[in-house]
């Protein structure tokens, strides 16, 4: 045998022996380490830069907000704060009392840290945070544990969206902020500061980050919630360490969960994996509701999409239950409002459920009748004189012009097969009415640019996987002020009545009054349908049976309450 | 043309090509559809927040101005800051590159060694059963769909049989153990390399084996092989000392270029095995419009490929004095 062949064979022999050697002595199982699988590496631990889901997951163990969501009611509940904020309408101010707490290095969390956080955000105008704080006129530390926020004007979102933001340590960030101020572009310098060891007051502190592989967290002995009862829950944490392991593909992550390499997959699982996971006795599957919205939007700046009746006909002919049962295999629910039904306080019940419970022929008949009543016609209508549904000719607009072909943009199937399939289904259902729609998958970035940046589109299907529980997004999505490049009003919807209600809702400090306004806004949107809500998938998660105490709430079991309560089974 | 003039001319050509690549990539990325900001915002952010983000990323400047900044920064060795990591892209690439080089160069070298050895043997036994079986197997291996075979190997060797890690490059638990020395850590990396290495080698070895077989068959028909036989040399000596080294030249050339291209990594291999290399970063940077990271990655690959081409050209000219371009 020649030299290269011997080398190769020698190497093969060596590596075949290697797993035997490695797998015997080194596998260390520590029951107090919770191993969590995540899809991608967190991009950063700089709180001012983090925009991706995995960075936020890591940071949620470290930095803490004043208030968080109660798992039962989903209303805000004190977290780093000791009690609910006290509102003074005369001064338009909120007073917040902090509970005794320490940062992970043992120093005290004080009102001064809160003041510093707000001032930093306002001074640097930090994107993602600034709009939540820009209406705060002044913030002052009344004493070591009391903070007072003075608002420029009443803002209903202050408690639900502002006070739930993280507080940072002055000790950690003041030197970094001062250094950033000396640079030509202070904001860029601040957000690009490399943070290797973030200082928080949460249940865990970062121990080390192995780039591309894992993140190790150790229990923060100074965590203010340790052994405390908050929202009727006795908090831990009951594990010593948390290990985030990074998996590039869902297939491998699922195998890792089944093999016991990880205890929880903090990652939405596709329904196709459920049968296999349910067969495994060591794995438990959790199905949770999500605050999400998947919808079809029209460009109402353009004719004929500016016609409400055309949009209503689309809603009638769209079989949302088909999506839920067939495309999403039952792991979803239909949506008949922009606000998910699980958001019970803000969701309006009394809204039209277009086409619900109707057969295909009934939907076509109803949509045809609506269009005919409003001036649309066909050479060969979808429903003949005897009431039979057939193949129609192309629809003719009220102006007498035949409707031109139009495109429904969808994300590609490799990005989201569900939305791509929905586009095709809606295309077919619209064709049943003689409406010449074509579904066209497009790369997600290009789709966003066309829809959000350039407004160069006819219709689109998009979704939000994590909608805030505060319904202020209704205002973002449909207020005419946001109809601009990169604005959230992608459909270009303009309705003075809606604008008036939306503006009023921002300053409605009485929750019941605001609820009334939000309900009315939903009614208007569901009548005019700039967006047609389609469905809302469930959050599918899986965890190993080795641990219990998961807190299942809207959004799943991957949350801070779970992290503080989960414990190894005896 | 003298060798020196050849090198000079080739270098100048490479500089021009590189400038074209430099400019082409910039405009390709910036004119391609997609907006990095749209991917970084959520409905809780106001349009003003999005504008702040645009300004922070420098995307509010006109394209020509951004191009001039880009050229200026390139000349000063500044490749920019990654939009997503908020860190210099050189730092991000520098962290990932050694991992890619380790996996892919090992795989290419091993595959080349195996391909040369086995290709030589099957050519020697041309027409025999071993030749038919190995040639067909090589063809099959060469055309295998890499992610499929990678997942199959993970399922069989790591999940069903066990003993191999499912993914990654290191065992976090082991590396966090202060008792683990450098030798143990090195073995751990090797342990994690096995499955990706096996997957890549199976694909590559087929390619090299087929090239070697074909080259060897050609060499065996040369007159000097006949002369060697006439001299009474042993068959083994003729195969290994006379035909083998000459026939392996095309494989060596191929390996040289493959090593250059290996810098971009096998994005699919790295994704399936969660190997923290540059291929995964490249895919991420392109799909998320992280222009600085994507541009720097492609530029780096371009430089390596251009230099590798220059080296191969010069080597050819040096080894065979008849060659002048």
Number of strands of chain B: 0
Helix-strand string of chain B: HHHHHHHHHHHHHH
Arithmetic mean pLDDT of chain A: 91
The CATH C-level name of the largest domain in chain A is: Alpha Beta
How many domains in all of chain B? 2
Oligomeric state of this protein: heterodimer
CATH C-level class of the largest domain in chain B is Mainly Alpha
Largest interface: A-B, 83 and 80 residues
Find the CATH superfamily of the largest domain in chain A: Dipeptide-binding Protein, Domain 3
Task: Describe the protein in words.
The complex is a heterodimer of chains A (about 575) and B (about 325). Chain A has about 575 residues and is α+β, with helices and mostly antiparallel strands. Chain A has three domains: about 65-175, Dipeptide-binding Protein, domain 1, CATH 3.90.76.10; about 205-290 and about 540-570, Periplasmic binding protein-like II (D-Maltodextrin-Binding Protein, domain 2); about 295-535, Dipeptide-binding Protein, domain 3 (Roll). In chain A, about 35% of the residues lie in helices and about 20% in strands. Chain A is built from 18 helices and 25 strands. In chain A, the strands form seven sheets. Chain A has a seven-stranded mixed sheet, sandwiched between helices. Chain A has a six-stranded mixed sheet with strand order 18-22-17-21-19-20, with helices on both faces. Chain A has a four-stranded antiparallel sheet with strand order 5-6-8-7, covered by helices on one side. In chain A, a hairpin with a 4-residue loop joins strand 5 (about 85-90) and strand 6. In chain A, helix 10 (about 310-315) runs antiparallel to helix 12 and helix 16 (about 495-505) packs antiparallel against helix 17 (about 510-530). Chain A is globular. The termini of chain A are far apart. Mean pLDDT of chain A is about 90; it is low at about 25-30. By secondary structure, chain B is an all-alpha fold. Chain B has two domains: about 5-75, no CATH class; about 90-320, Orthogonal Bundle (MetI-like fold). Chain B contains 14 helices and no strands. Chain B is globular. The relative contact order of chain B is 0.15. The model of chain B has no long low-confidence stretch (mean pLDDT about 85). At the A-B interface, helix 1, helix 4, helix 7, strand 10 and strand 14 of A face helix 2, helix 4, helix 6, helix 7 and helix 8 of B.
């Amino acid at each position: 045998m020649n030299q290269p062949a011997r080398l190769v064979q020698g190497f093969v022999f060596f590596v075949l022996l290697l797993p035997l050697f490695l797998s015997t002595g080194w596998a260390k199982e520590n029951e107090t380490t919770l191993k969590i699988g995540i899809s991608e590496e967190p991009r950063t631990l700089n709180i001012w830069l983090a925009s991706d889901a995995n960075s936020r997951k890591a940071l949620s163990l470290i930095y803490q907000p004043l208030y968080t969501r109660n798992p039962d009611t989903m209303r805000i509940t004190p977290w780093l704060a000791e009690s609910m904020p006290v509102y003074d309408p005369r001064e338009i101010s909120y007073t917040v009392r902090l509970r005794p707490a320490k940062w992970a290095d043992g120093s005290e969390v004080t009102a001064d840290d809160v003041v510093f956080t707000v001032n930093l955000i306002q001074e640097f105008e930090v994107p993602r945070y600034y709009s939540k704080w820009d209406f705060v006129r002044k913030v002052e530390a009344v004493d070591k544990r009391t903070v007072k926020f003075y608002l420029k004007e009443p803002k209903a979102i202050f408690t639900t969206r502002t006070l739930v933001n993280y507080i940072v340590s002055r000790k950690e960030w003041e030197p970094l902020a001062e250094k950033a101020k000396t640079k030509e572009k202070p904001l860029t310098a601040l957000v690009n500061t490399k943070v290797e060891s973030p200082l928080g007051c949460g249940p865990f502190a970062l121990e080390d980050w192995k780039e591309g592989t894992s993140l190790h967290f150790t229990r923060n002995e100074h965590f203010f919630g340790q052994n405390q009862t908050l929202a009727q829950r006795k908090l831990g944490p009951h594990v010593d360490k948390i290990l985030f392991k990074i998996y590039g593909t869902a297939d491998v992550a699922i195998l890792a969960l089944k093999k016991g390499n990880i205890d929880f997959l903090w990652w939405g699982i596709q329904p196709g994996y459920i049968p296999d996971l349910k067969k495994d006795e060591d794995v438990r599957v959790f199905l949770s509701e999500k605050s999400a919205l998947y919808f079809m939007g029209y460009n109402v700046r353009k004719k004929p999409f500016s016609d409400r009746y055309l949009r209503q006909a689309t809603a009638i002919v769209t079989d949302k239950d088909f999506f839920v049962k067939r495309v999403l295999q039952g792991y979803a629910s239909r949506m008949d409002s922009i606000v998910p039904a699980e958001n019970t306080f803000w969701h309006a019940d009394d809204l039209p459920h277009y086409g619900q419970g109707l057969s295909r022929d009934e939907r076509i008949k109803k949509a045809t009748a609506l269009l005919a009543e409003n001036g649309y016609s066909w050479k060969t209508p979808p429903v003949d004189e005897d009431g039979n549904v057939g193949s129609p000719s192309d629809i003719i607009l009220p102006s007498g012009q035949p409707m031109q072909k139009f495109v429904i943009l969808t994300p590609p199937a490799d990005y989201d097969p569900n939305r791509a399939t929905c586009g095709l289904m809606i295309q077919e259902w619209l064709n049943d009415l003689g409406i010449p729609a074509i579904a066209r998958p497009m790369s997600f970035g290009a789709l966003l640019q066309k829809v959000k940046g350039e407004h160069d589109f006819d219709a689109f299907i998009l979704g939000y996987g994590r909608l805030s529980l505060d319904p202020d997004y209704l205002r973002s999505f449909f207020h005419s002020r946001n109809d601009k490049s990169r604005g959230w009003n992608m459909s270009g919807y303009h309705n003075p009545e809606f604008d008036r209600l939306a503006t009023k809702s921002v300053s409605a400090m009485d929750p019941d009054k605001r609820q009334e306004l939000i309900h009315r806004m939903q009614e208007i949107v569901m009548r005019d349908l700039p967006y047609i809500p389609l469905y809302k998938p469930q959050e599918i998660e899986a965890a190993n049976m080795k641990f219990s105490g998961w807190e299942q709430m809207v959004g799943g079991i991957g949350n801070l309450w779970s992290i503080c309560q989960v414990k190894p089974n005896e | 043309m003298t060798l020196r003039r050849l090198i000079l001319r080739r270098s100048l050509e490479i500089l021009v090509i590189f400038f074209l690549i430099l400019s082409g990539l910039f405009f390709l990325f910036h004119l391609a559809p997609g907006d990095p900001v749209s991917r970084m915002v959520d409905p809780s952010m106001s349009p003003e927040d999005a504008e702040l983000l645009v300004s922070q990323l420098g995307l509010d400047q006109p394209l020509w101005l951004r191009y001039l900044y880009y050229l200026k920064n390139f000349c000063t060795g500044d490749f920019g800051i990654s939009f997503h990591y908020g860190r210099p892209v050189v730092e991000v690439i520098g962290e990932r590159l050694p991992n890619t080089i380790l996996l892919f160069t090992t795989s290419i070298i091993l595959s080349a060694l195996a391909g040369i050895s086995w290709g030589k043997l099957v050519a020697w036994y041309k027409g025999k059963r071993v030749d038919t079986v190995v040639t067909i197997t090589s063809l099959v291996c060469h055309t295998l769909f890499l992610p499929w075979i990678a997942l199959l190997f993970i399922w069989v060797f790591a999940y069903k049989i066990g003993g191999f890690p499912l993914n990654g490059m290191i065992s976090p638990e082991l590396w966090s153990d202060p008792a683990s020395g450098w030798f143990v850590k090195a073995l751990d990396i090797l342990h994690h390399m096995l499955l990706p290495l096996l997957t890549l080698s199976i694909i590559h070895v087929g390619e090299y084996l087929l090239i070697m077989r074909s080259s060897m068959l050609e060499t065996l028909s040369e007159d000097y092989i006949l002369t060697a036989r006439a001299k009474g040399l042993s068959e083994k000596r003729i195969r290994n000392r006379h035909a083998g080294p000459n026939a392996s030249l095309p494989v060596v050339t191929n390996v040289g270029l493959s090593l250059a291209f290996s810098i971009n990594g096998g994005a699919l291999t790295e994704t399936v095995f969660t190997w923290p290399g540059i291929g995964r970063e490249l895919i991420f940077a392109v799909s998320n419009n992280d222009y600085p990271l994507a541009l720097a990655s492609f530029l780096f690959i371009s430089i390596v490929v251009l230099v590798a081409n220059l080296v191969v050209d010069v080597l050819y000219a040096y080894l065979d004095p008849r060659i002048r371009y």
